[in-house]
Amino acid sequence: MIYWFTRWAAYFFVKIFFRLKVYGNIPRGGVILCPNHLSNFDPPVIAASTQKSLYFMAKKELFKNPIFGWYLRKLHAFPVDRSTFDRGAFRKAISLLNADKNVLIFPEGTRKKDPTLKLGEIKRAISYIIYNTKKKVVPIYIKGTDRWMRFKKFEVRFGKPFDVEERGEKFSKEVAEKISQKIKQKILEIMDE
Q1: How many domains does the chain have?
Q2: Exposure on the CB side of residue 33, measured as CA atoms within 13 A
């Protein structure tokens, strides 16, 4: 109930004040959602852009406050330690995906800091999650959330789901890099449409 109430509240808020436009959607069966990352608005805006339930990987610092941490968990968020290879968080994501849940992970790891770059570097850690599931990846382009104070229009574009043939190879840094570069390529393709 808390998730869906928050989701609908976010939808009406961004629809009215930021004229949210959504293109595409998420297929059934659980997917890995990989958007670019511009601001703290991104998770609720993406959740507001689909009627399907989403689970979020969020930095552990957000869970320090017990009340806010409780609320985040009710919104299907779970913590990840970005300073290390957080196997616990990755296993949680894999478990959710194997249960046909949709998991949202920002592959850049943090908000884009350099305004001259279209997209930051993709962290190889996300490749571990993708490699260890049989789920497809949905690239997402989100636009405008970094200029929310100017009430710019928000836009969310869901790309076509894609698979990674690298699952047939033994997992290595090279395989992780291939998967990461494929994610980057797919997000950039949506940006250029």
Answers
A1: 1
A2: 33
Domain CATH number, residue 87: 3.40.1130.10
Maximum Cα interatomic distance, the chain, rounded to a whole number of Å: 48
Q: Give pTM, 2 decimals.
A: 0.91
The answer to whether 87 touches 80, Cβ cutoff 8 Å, is no
Domain extent at residue 54: 2-191
| 95-120 confidence digits (pLDDT tens) | 999 999 999 999 998 776 666 678 88
In this structure, are residues 23 and 157 in contact, taking their beta carbons and an 8 Å threshold? yes
**7 phi and psi angles, rounded to 5 deg:** -65, -45
